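Researcher: Good morning. I'm working through a list of sequences from a screen, and I'd like to move beyond sequence-only analysis. For each chain I'm collecting a predicted structure so we can compare shapes side by side. This is the next one on the list. No need for commentary yet; just the structure.
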Amino acid sequence: MVHNPQLAAYMSTLIEAEDEPLRAARARSEENDIDAVSAETGAFLRFLARAVKARSVVEVGSGGGYSGLWFLGGMDNKGILTTIESDSDHQNLSQQAYGEAGQASRVRSLLGPALSMLPKLADDSYDIVFLDADPVEYPEYLEHGIRLLKPGGLLVAHGALADGKIADPSEAGLQVDAMRQFNDLVAENPDFQVFLLPVGRGLLGAVWRANA
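Model: Good morning. Structure tokens for this chain:
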């Protein structure tokens, strides 16, 4: 959400560049009107995966596979990415992206509504839980994220600033209101240590410190 073009251009020279599979996944996402994360957001997701040496990541909302590829590039070589997608066409696109990158064997792709699929995942099993789906459901995703995270794991939510609307009291609506509720729930939980970055559409992250 950097609005200074000169500063944004400078920052882009410092982050990890897209490779060909990432460029192809982004292009397909744009062609199919899939709202993929920005390259800056993707690079930060990869940074986080490397920082915690992630071996298990669950992503709610695979889209065209763009963010998943960023995660896979930062995870442990034996790590597994679990993706949940409700749209079969999007799932097909994401699987194409993983295949082109030679990463298909490291992805468990689940098709179905997130709130139906999340209960099937094991407790205390994930280093990172990444939310990039319907903001209206984020408060309900949070309950599962808490259950799924290992002590010291990361909860990461895309769209946390609602394109800048989050701080404007005059802005309302299902998505903005749900995102405000979600942000408040995370910030008020004493077992989370929270950060919020103006990257892309806003990125909220929280370290789960319970029993750590």
